[in-house]
Inverse folding.
């Protein structure tokens, strides 16, 4: 589709662009104290963009802007997920004490820019487009991570993030250039076609390029060994941003991995009929299986040793990336389905856990395990809700996290006995994760004594808590709506060879 | 069958939880009464279920079906048969009695009784669900309340005990989950246990994974999951610790019902879905049973803590049960179609499940009684209590004799049945395990002598006698133990049709496959 025609499929992004401009201009008229009101503009824009996504979400599957972007239900799914995460994080940010005393107008405007970048990531089908989209998201994340200008740790986080980011995108770009050299095009489908006609000697160069590109993607989803930035950035960044980074860019990171590897290295057959999936001779499924095992095991083992809950959650989010990666080597649409379902569940439980950390800190507590001691006695509602999130992150029914893991395991076991080892490793890792998640529950309830005064959070805090906790439980018991939504969204723009 | 009695039995405690949620924290008496009413109504409903149960039918009765998640073939299916019904009644009874055992709880009462009822939902759900997914969900729902009940209301090492319990059982359940998914994908994508019982015995014939029969792999994965709950040696190390730290009522539930869940799972799933592998594993099961018998008894003999001694006696008794379970292969053609032996062994095992439920519950309640008064449980720290607390000593004697398997008590009959059943197939093991009975008597009598006989320890001359509430919790259990010890027929009639179905399955598949 040419550029002019494409515009009529581009409403969500157009609305977002206008929102970003309006938010920045509006912020000029606010005093320092009222700067936070910019959030209202951003919220309004996001809701309009979501409405546009909803209206456009149809059976039409096409490419936009001369084959630079795909327009398909798969992209719409991730866009919706991003909007949902952003809206929740905007609400969460309102309650954060870390942002007090900072002008937050830019903070919300930057978040809107990041949403725009992630929208592009979810639909890019051209290497240059993809690179630009990733860079938009990365650069905005660097600024947001370092938003607390006076805080040394926040500065350190931003700097580390920049260095690692520059390094891994550099490697990714190098890989892309090799692919361009081999295929003569930056478009995914042209590369896919070239792939199937590669000479034997060029195969090696291609594998190398795939690994390089994986470095860039792995950095976005914080897969080992590209994870080194994660704990420090998560610890130093303002906690709402940490929560945001652990959910939204990670989700689109998976979207990119799925789209890129399924179109470029496979023949996309799985999306027409799950039984016909052939792929090139490059061993990328095995590569990703190993990556997944290392990622979850390392994430879990290091999470065990943390004394700060925020840092523990950072490592645990590495482990969760590992669980999701398990489903990619299955080479099936079920695997993709499982990842998409997991991401929805993960959104609620992970944002929920971070929100509790933010709330406790704003009530004069801290982020370490010691600060949570006896919390369940002082604030029973917060304690119970946090227990729900911890249960869900561990993957114990009846919570959303269990359903997510269940689908991941099912997609792995479906492949057959040759993949059972992966399922067993994943299962053992879930047990390991129980220990550190339940350490939180342990300090909250098992330590400390019944207290006379009970703190009940304010109505808005309760509202956010329940908005995150109720789906976490409800989708653990009845997840058919999510399952339907995911299966409707399981249509990628593909070319079958 | 419009009344959906099984759903009511499972979900009545939820109504209780909802009611408790609206009671102010201070009104502890009201919370306790609500719990008593909820568990009482549930117990009456289980009795009603028993009265309507058709003894001649070995299949499932009172079935309920509802769609849940059609896209993954997950359904809400409930049903009860001769294997689950006794356990359902026992669960109803023990939860009702344990409510009164918990009457003295005064720390965070609201939380305690809410979790107590949640635990009840989980246990009832496991016994009644016939969809594998539903089964797994209920199985895991039990873990959280147990964690808190041990961890918040337990003894000095409660935090360690709670997390240890949780980790151990979670390892078992994740292995089980993998086995469940393996069955799902090899047996036509269904979680419906009734279908699986039809399809699974033959669907896996000849399927090899990495050179091993798939059926064995799945059997072992499931077995480990259940063995941790039973607990079978060498997975038993969590049990004594958890028992010692748990509050009395939770020990009662743990020994009385939770341990039986493992056995129930083996019979319901391993035996009924993968009967072919039973042949392959029966010998190992009998050996594990023997180890449990001897190891449990030796450890019990070495204990100074009365509660720990009773906990190890559970390990010992589960050994007899495993030996009885292994006897099922006597019914196969290779062993001369000795159906009577198989019936005795399997029937004895299920009977022992029930009897150990009542006897160990009684023992733990009684240990709790003396602990509440003396604030310690050291066997050597008492002496001559019989003079001070004659009624208590009398009941304790009864419970100890029931525990050591004296004829006249129900425990004796079930243990004897296990031995009789297993003797034709595992002679050496049965003979060796009779040593366990001797040790059994030794540790119970030793404990009784040190605590109750001799001259009264001066420290305890003001010890108050067992009170009415405590008597109320023990006497029904004592009556059941004595009654079934003299006249076990009602119970054996209840289970026999279902036992025959299982025996038939193992014997027939064994003779067809004949490979093991």
């Amino acid at each position: 589709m040419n550029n002019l025609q494409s515009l009529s499929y581009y409403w969500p992004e157009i609305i977002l662009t206008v929102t970003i401009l309006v938010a920045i201009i509006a912020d000029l008229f606010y005093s320092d104290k009222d700067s936070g009101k910019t959030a209202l503009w951003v919220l309004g824009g996001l809701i309009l963009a979501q409405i546009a996504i909803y209206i456009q979400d149809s059976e039409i599957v096409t490419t936009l802007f001369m084959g630079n972007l795909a327009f398909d239900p798969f992209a719409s799914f991730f866009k919706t997920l991003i909007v949902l995460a952003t809206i929740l994080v905007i609400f969460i940010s309102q309650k954060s004490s870390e942002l007090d005393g900072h002008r937050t107008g830019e903070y919300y405007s930057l978040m809107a820019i990041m949403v725009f970048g992630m929208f592009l990531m979810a639909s890019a089908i051209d290497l240059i487009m993809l690179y630009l989209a990733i860079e938009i998201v990365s650069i905005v994340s660097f600024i947001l991570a370092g938003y607390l200008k006076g805080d040394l740790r926040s500065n350190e986080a931003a700097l580390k993030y920049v260095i690692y980011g520059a390094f891994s995108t550099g490697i990714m770009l190098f890989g892309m250039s090799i692919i361009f050299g081999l295929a003569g095009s930056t478009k995914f489908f042209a590369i896919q076609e070239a792939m199937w006609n590669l000479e034997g000697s060029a195969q090696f160069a291609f594998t190398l390029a795939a690994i390089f590109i994986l470095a860039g993607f792995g950095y976005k989803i914080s897969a080992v060994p590209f994870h080194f930035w994660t704990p420090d950035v998560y610890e130093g960044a303002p906690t709402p941003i940490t929560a945001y980074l652990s959910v939204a860019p990670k989700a689109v990171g998976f979207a990119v991995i799925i789209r890129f590897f399924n179109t470029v290295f496979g023949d996309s057959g799985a999306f027409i009929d799950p039984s016909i999936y052939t792929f090139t001779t490059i061993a990328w499924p095995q590569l990703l299986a190993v990556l997944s095992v290392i990622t979850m095991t390392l994430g879990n083992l290091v999470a065990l040793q943390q004394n700060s809950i925020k840092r523990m959650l950072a490592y645990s989010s590495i482990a969760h990336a590992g669980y999701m990666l398990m489903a990619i080597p299955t080479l099936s649409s079920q695997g993709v389905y499982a990842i998409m379902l997991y991401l929805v569940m993960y959104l609620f439980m992970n944002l929920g856990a971070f929100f509790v950390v933010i709330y406790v800190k704003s009530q004069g507590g801290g982020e370490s395990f010691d600060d949570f001691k006896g919390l369940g006695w002082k604030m029973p509602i917060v304690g119970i809700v946090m227990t729900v999130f911890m249960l869900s992150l561990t993957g114990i029914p009846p919570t959303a996290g269990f359903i997510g893991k269940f689908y991941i395991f099912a997609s792995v076991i479906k492949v057959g006995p040759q993949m059972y080892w992966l399922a067993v490793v994943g299962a053992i890792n879930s047990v390991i994760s129980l220990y550190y998640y339940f350490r939180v529950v342990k300090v909250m309830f098992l330590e400390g004594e019944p207290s006379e005064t009970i703190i009940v959070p304010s109505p808005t805090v309760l509202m956010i808590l329940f908005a995150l906790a109720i789906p976490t439980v409800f989708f653990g018991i009845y997840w058919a709506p999510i399952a339907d939504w995911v299966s409707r969204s399981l249509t990628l723009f593909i070319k079958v060879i | 069958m419009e009344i959906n009695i099984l759903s009511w039995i499972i979900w009545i405690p939820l109504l209780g939880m909802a009611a408790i949620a609206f009671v102010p924290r201070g009104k502890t008496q009201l919370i306790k009464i609500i719990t008593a009413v909820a568990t009482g109504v549930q117990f009456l409903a289980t009795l009603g279920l028993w009265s309507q149960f058709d003894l001649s039918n070995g299949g499932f009765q009172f079935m309920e079906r509802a769609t849940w998640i059609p896209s993954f073939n997950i359904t809400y299916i409930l049903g009860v048969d001769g294997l689950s019904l006794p356990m359902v009644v026992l669960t109803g009874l023990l939860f009702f009695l344990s409510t009164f055992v918990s009457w003295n709880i005064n720390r965070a009462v609201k939380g305690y009784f809410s979790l107590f009822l949640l635990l009840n939902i989980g246990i009832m759900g496991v016994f009644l669900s016939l969809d594998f997914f539903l089964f797994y969900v209920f199985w895991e729902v039990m873990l959280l309340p147990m964690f808190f009940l041990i961890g918040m209301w337990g003894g000095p090492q409660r935090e360690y005990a709670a997390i240890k319990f949780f980790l151990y059982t979670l390892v078992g359940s994740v292995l089980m989950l993998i086995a469940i998914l393996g069955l799902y994908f090899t047996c036509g994508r269904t979680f419906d246990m009734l279908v699986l019982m039809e399809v699974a015995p033959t669907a896996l014939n000849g399927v090899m994974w990495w050179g091993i029969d798939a059926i064995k792999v799945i059997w072992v994965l499931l077995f480990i999951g259940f063995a941790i709950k039973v607990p079978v040696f060498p997975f038993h190390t969590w049990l004594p610790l958890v028992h010692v730290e748990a509050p009395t009522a939770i020990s009662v539930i743990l020994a009385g019902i939770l341990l039986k869940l493992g056995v129930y799972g083996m019979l319901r799933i391993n035996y009924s879905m993968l009967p072919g592998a039973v042949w392959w594993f029966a010998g190992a099961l009998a050996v594990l049973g023997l180890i449990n018998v001897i190891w449990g008894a030796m450890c019990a003999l070495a204990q100074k803590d009365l509660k720990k001694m009773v906990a190890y006696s559970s390990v010992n008794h589960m050994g007899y049960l495993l030996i009885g379970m292994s006897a099922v292969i006597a019914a196969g053609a290779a062993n001369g179609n000795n159906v009577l032996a198989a019936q005795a062994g399997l029937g004895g095992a299920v009977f022992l499940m029930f009897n150990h439920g009542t006897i160990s519950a009684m023992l733990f309640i009684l240990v709790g009684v003396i602990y509440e008064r003396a604030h310690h449980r050291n066997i050597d720290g008492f002496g001559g209590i019989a003079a001070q607390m004659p009624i208590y000593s009398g009941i304790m004697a009864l419970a100890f004799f029931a525990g050591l398997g004296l004829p006249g008590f129900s425990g004796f009959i079930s243990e004897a049945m296990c031995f009789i059943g297993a003797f034709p197939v595992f002679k050496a093991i049965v003979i060796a395990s009779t040593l366990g009975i001797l040790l059994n008597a030794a540790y119970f009598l030793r404990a009784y002598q040190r605590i109750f006989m001799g001259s009264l320890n001066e420290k305890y001359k003001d010890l108050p006698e067992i009170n009415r509430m405590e008597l109320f919790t023990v006497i029904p259990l004592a009556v059941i133990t004595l009654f079934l010890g003299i006249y076990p027929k009602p119970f054996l009639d209840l289970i026999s049709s279902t036992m025959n179905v299982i025996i038939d399955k193992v014997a027939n598949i064994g003779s067809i496959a004949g490979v093991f």
Notes: The first strand of chain A starts at residue 62 and ends at 64.
